[in-house]
Amino acid sequence: MIELGLSLDVILESFFLLLLPILAVAILFSENMAAIAIMSCVFSMVMAVIYLLLAAPDVAMTESAIGAAISTAILIKSMQLTQSRILSDKFFCLANIISFFALLFFGAMMIYGFADLPDYGQGSAPVNSYISKDYIKNTPSEIGIASSVAAILASYRGFDTLGETLVIMVAGLVVYFVMNIERPVQVDLLDEKAEAVYENKIWMTDYIRTMLLPVSLILAFYIQVHGEISPGGGFQAGSVLSSIFIFYFVVADIKSINFHKMIKTLLKLSFVGFLIYLLMAIYTAVIGGYFLEYYAITGTLLGHKIGIFIIEIGVGITVFSVMLMIFLLFEYKLQSKPITRST
Amino acid sequence: MNLLVENIIPSQVILLLFVAALLPLFSKRGWLISFITVYLCAFVSCLMIFVVKKYGYVNYVFGKFSVPYGIEFRFDPLSSAFVALVTIGALPIMIYSLLGTKLEIEKKKRPLFYSLLLMHIAGNLGVIIAHDLFTIYVFIEIASITAYGLVAAGKSKQATFNAYNYLIVGTIGASFYLLGIGIIYALTGTLNMADVAKVLTTLPPTNLLGISYICVLLGILLKIGIFPFHGWVPGVLYSAPSTVSALFSVASSNVMIYLVIRLFFDVFNTDITSFATIQKLLMIMAFITVMAGGILALIEREFRKMLGYSSLMNYSLVIFAIAVASKAAIIAAFVMLFAHAIAKSGLFMSAGLMSLRRPSLIIEEMPGTFAKAPWTTTAFVINIIALSGIPPFINFLGKWQLLVASIKQDKALIIVAITSTLFGLLYGLKIIDKVLFKPEPASGLVANSSQALMELGIIITGLMILAMTIFGGFFFAQAEMIANFLLRTLPR
Amino acid sequence: MNYVIVAILLVLGLLILLTTKNLIKKIVGLGIFQTAILLFYISLGRVHGGVPPIVEAKHLEDQLYSSPLPQVLMLTAIVVGIATFAVAMSLVSKINQEFGTINEDEIHEQLK
């Protein structure tokens, strides 16, 4: 007898999971760039919801802020910069058909192989029972904070997070390096048609500036500081705050913004953020411990709290400045092109 | 201030990152600081070789946690050898880079360029020293993203497009690696390499395990340039700044080869059948790439692209030798790897010097440089002869060793050794002929004092090849020790 | 079931990457490929009836938690993904500046 033990979360999970391939196929066959951008945004949002259903709130926050918000903003900006609106792809040529069958074989092999994985959701799987269990068990006594995700991220595997902060900083550096803004360009004045659009935008910028930004600043600080006892931390706070700023810059008055100085300041700020993390690592070594041994700071569990707090600030600063800087670099490049209003 | 002596183990990576982060904030030029930093790292590598000789291996866990919970850094004969290769091999490149960057990178971007360079080296060292599968992924990405930026710094129009292609292939490779270690993590529950090796021996050999090995190895091999995904290799090495191409010859692909060696011998080595299967797969893929690389190198008319295909051939040859997995073959692999890295970096630097006046180096039109720059040309010729595997230099000894190893192992393997040597000879002779025997002097290679440092870098690589040849016995003995270390677990 | 979706997304992501000639759409496909791997890891850590691994004092002794380690790894992976994405986009815009197009075939034509 088939038991329909379908609880609510299984139904929800399946619903959102089935949306994903549908979106992916839609992106595959789509020829309209704007549609692709929106669909990839929705894809990330659905992913964030799925992570929430899989009991991973930290990841859900990060995915929604970074995947859905920032990644879409950069995607749209680069579409504007390359002025691509409609694709022209031949879908049924020989190379594509070969790739399709090769990938079909690959997919079938993966599904066949995945059958050997430990059953989904079992507490006895190696992932859930070996070191993860010990992490959860030992976090209160060894690290002293509530969130074992933050404990692993910042303390147990703190060096990985240092590498990750480095990756963000490097991405900002490489984008800055490639986009070459060394020659400050005169931004064209807006023409009449754009002037009308600009008038409409003023209420939006006022709204964002007076209501949205202050509230989200408080939210971002809350997320930053509460990373140790609830889902949150440096990555989430940095990305949420930068996405609000990006929202502001999307609608703001471009004439009065000194992009050049802002970008350079943000670049330096990202280095400062990374250095905060690195200097904390070096400091723990200098005072006689191993690198990243927070325990050595005070000799008690308080050392861990201090260490984690400081490095999360470093991470938050780096993430915020790099995400915002990358967006501003694209915006700046866009503004410094001669404006040809065709539609 | 009481410093623990163990902290020297991750000190190279931390120092490189520290200097790289400070460089754009405070420095206008940055060459001297970069050079000193790399020199210090090379010094520490030599120190660690002695330490490893004395203690067998040393490990270090960040934050003083215990092994599966924290991230482990480990120096053992294999990793200390590769760290030495990357840091010591980077020294002549840093000497060369003072002028190399002056001529190829704009002044304002130079501190950022050096910063990226140092971070690239740090990323490579991190992959070698880290003993944790996921940390290796993070450092692979650090090395890769800095690499994309470094390639895109090239002046030509193609540089950015080649960087883009490199990015696509590189990210797919890193993602396959991530997928593979995800499956391994699902089956073992841990990420530390020693721990994973231990747990893997207790698992039944399912299809999934085989798929995960393939995913991981495929990902790594994609980043080296295995056939049929080799298209990006010549373009990248051609359009990148010459400093960068030279550094890639010493670092990036060699570090990927390190990863293959490490995984093949220490982690995936669970039982005889799986070992044999991976062995056969590696040998087949390496063989195809050797053939492809050799043929493409012969028909290629541009110097740097030819060097790119030759690199591909040499890397695959090394992987082939590793896959054979006999003691003699491993010794051959190491000798060939090290010798190739030094010789190839010298050749890329020479190409950079030659391209000062002529942007595209078609082999038929290469200048005869002997008259105006005798020392450099000698070094260049040494490097080319070494690269081709012509006696008496160390590369030839390595290839001879491979021949010996394949005779002992299996007659069919001799074909690979002989054909690759033939390819090498053919393309090497083409170049030597042009450079040494062309009567008219070069119009572009005026040896003035400002180029002296560039030439010094090239000459140092030539001297290194000479040194490795003269002290060949010592070199072979070191390789033998590494081979013994790798094979210690083999009869499982 | 999750794992089947993961495999399908892996295939679709690579398919988008390989079948389109537009440089931007390729990166979107790459992003889908990477996101599928993230889903794989997080699904590994799921425990039926488990809550997010935030250990508060008032929780009972035998409270089930989802595994924290895959989540930490995937935080890193998301960040690495966007880093690659941003770098790729900047390269595409520079390619557009140099070649005037972001169609792979047209660029190959220009390079001949």
Fold blueprint:
The complex is a heterotrimer of chains A (343), B (492) and C (112).
Chain A lengths: L7 H22 L3 H21 L3 H26 L11 H21 L11 H4 L1 H13 L4 H9 L1 H22 L12 H34 L8 H18 L7 H28 L8 H4 L2 H35 L8
Helix pairs in contact in A: 1-2, 2-3, 3-10, 3-13, 6-7, 7-8, 7-13, 8-11, 8-13, 9-10, 10-13, 11-13
Chain B lengths: L10 H16 L4 H25 L2 E4 L10 E4 L1 H28 L5 H20 L3 H20 L5 H31 L4 H8 L6 H18 L7 H8 L2 H9 L1 H16 L4 H28 L3 H22 L2 H28 L19 H15 L5 H16 L3 H25 L14 H19 L1 H16 L5
Antiparallel strand pairs in B: 1-2
Helix pairs in contact in B: 1-2, 1-4, 2-3, 3-4, 3-10, 3-11, 3-14, 3-18, 4-5, 4-11, 5-6, 6-8, 6-9, 8-11, 9-10, 9-13, 10-14, 11-13, 12-13, 12-17, 13-14, 13-17, 14-15, 14-16, 14-18, 14-19, 15-17, 15-18, 16-17
Chain C lengths: L1 H18 L3 H22 L23 H32 L4 H8 L1
Short description:
The complex is a heterotrimer of chains A (343), B (492) and C (112). Chain A is mainly alpha-helical and 343 residues long.
Question: Overview of this structure, please?
Answer:
The complex is a heterotrimer of chains A (343), B (492) and C (112). With 343 residues, chain A is mostly helical. Chain A has helices at residues 8-29, 33-53, 57-82, 94-114, 126-129, 131-143, 148-156, 158-179, 192-225, 234-251, 259-286, 295-298, 301-335. Residues 339-343 of chain A have low confidence and may be disordered. Chain B has helices spanning 11-26, 31-55, 77-104, 110-129, 133-152, 158-188, 193-200, 207-224, 232-239, 242-250, 252-267, 272-299, 303-324, 327-354, 374-388, 394-409, 413-437, 452-470, 472-487, and strands at 58-61, 72-75. Chain B has a two-stranded antiparallel ribbon with strand order 1-2. In chain B, helix 3 packs antiparallel against helix 10 (242-250) and helix 5 (133-152) packs antiparallel against helix 6 (158-188). Chain C is an all-alpha fold and 112 residues long. Chain C has a single domain, classed as Orthogonal Bundle (Helix Hairpins), CATH 1.10.287.3510. Chain C contains four helices and no strands. The radius of gyration of chain C is 20 Å and the shape is elongated. The interface between A and C is large, with 99 and 75 residues.
